[in-house]
Each structure stands twice: as C-alpha cells, then as structure tokens.
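[SOLVED] Predicted holo structure with NAP

Edit: marking solved, answer below. Original request kept for reference. I posted the sequence and ligand SMILES and asked for the 3D complex as structure tokens.
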Amino acid sequence: MEYLDLYLVHWPISSKPGEVGFPVPKEDLLPMDYRGVWEAMEESQMLGLTKSIGLSNFSCKKIETILTFATIPPSINQVEMHPVWQQRKLIEFCKAKGIIVTAYSPLGAVGKIYGSNQVLENETLKEIAKAHGKTVAQVSLRWIFEQGATVVVKSLNLERMKQNLGIFDWKLTDDDYDKINQIPQHRLIPSDFWVSPQGPFKTLEELWDD
Ligand SMILES: NC(=O)c1ccc[n+]([C@@H]2O[C@H](COP(=O)([O-])OP(=O)(O)OC[C@H]3O[C@@H](n4cnc5c(N)ncnc54)[C@H](OP(=O)(O)O)[C@@H]3O)[C@@H](O)[C@H]2O)c1
C-alpha cells in the first residue's frame, strides 16, 4: 500500500519498545506521550502516508488533552457503542468538536472471547425487531446509524453480511426510542487488561475517566 485511508491510535497507552503481544504484559505498560504520538500521527498525514488520522478508546477528557495541542484534530474516535452502551456523553462531546464516532462491537461482539450476547438477547431490542420484521442485529445497527455514528460490524457469514447492510430503508419510531432510552447502560467490554497497579491506569475509572 502507498497510503492508508485512516490511521488510528488504538488505545491511550504505550508499551515498552520491542515486539508487542496481546494482551500486553502488565509490567510492560507505560503512559502514552500524547503530544509526541499525536505529532507523529500528524506527520504521517502530512507526508501523505494516510488520508486521515484518529483515535480509538479515548474518553472525552483524553480527547480534550489531544485537542490542546493538535494542529490536525482527530477525524474520528472509535469506541464500543450499541444500545446497551449508548455513549451519550461522548457522542454529544464529539459532535460539538466535529469528531465522528465509530461504533465497534456494535452487536456486543457476540461469540467473541471478549464479547457478550447482551445486545442480541436484549428483550427490548427483540420486541422492537419483531414489530419491524427485522433482526435484533439490524435494530442495533440502525440505532447506531441514526445517532450519526459510523459502524464497524464484522461477520464471516455472507447472509449476515447482507442482513447487516439492510438498515437503510426503514427507521425507528419515537416509541422505539422511548424503549431504547430506558435500556440499563453498561460497558460490555471494559478492557481491564490495560489496568495494573504499576501501570498508567490503576483502575478502570482512570482508563475511561468515568
Ligand atoms: N478499536 C478497538 O479497540 C476495537 C475493539 C473491538 C473490536 N473492534 C473492531 O470492531 C469490529 C467489529 O467488532 P466485533 O467483531 O468485536 O463485534 P461485532 O461486530 O459486534 O460482533 C461480531 C460477531 O457477531 C456475529 N454477527 C455478525 N452479524 C450478525 C448478525 N446479523 N446476527 C447475528 N450475529 C452476527 C459474528 O459472527 P459471524 O461471523 O458468524 O456472522 C461475530 O461473532 C471488528 O472489525 C473489530 O476489529 C475494534
């Protein structure tokens, strides 16, 4: 490849130089030099190596830090987002700053080692899906689309890929929104592999600025 379309800082954390496994061993976790990393990202864009640069898994507070010195603001922030973790505050914040939110694990990463069936098995979403003659996956993806967010959904199954594209010729009703707004909120993928007593984030609250 001569260039990337979009290049993201995956997490607001660094590791000791050298080969990096996943999860990164806790003793190798280091605080990120936000300014240094973002300047290098900007240089990548200025050199034409990437068309856009952005963030992933950054809280409002951490994006604010980047914005204090960015000459090229992040184009997007990619985070966990679905009707069970709606990210209302982050969506509002990013909208005000002109940053697009991308929803990852929009179906709760069902079937993945880090995932959960709490989106696809949600009774409220099942009820809404039944009323529209759609699947729960389609309801979740449509809801994300209606929030003005972009979405990365993953399937290795052709039929489900087609199903996941079938969200553009119908919409959710006010009644659906009343129900979706009442779904109890919690993060399904807290990602505590970045938390360590010796590392830069000693608690999940520090990682997410919750
Ligand atoms: N930036 C980050 O830190 C971060 C973190 C996590 C994920 N991501 C990215 O986000 C993207 C998607 O997230 P994800 O794979 O974690 O979760 P996801 O898209 O919510 O879920 C994928 C799972 O859902 C199943 N699935 C897909 N469509 C379905 C449908 N219509 N009905 C029922 N099941 C369906 C897939 O199985 P089948 O293949 O069998 O259909 C797969 O097991 C990936 O590209 C991933 O790399 C980014």
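OP edit: Strands lie at 4-9, 14-15, 29-30, 50-56, 76-80, 100-104, 150-152. Thanks to everyone who chimed in.
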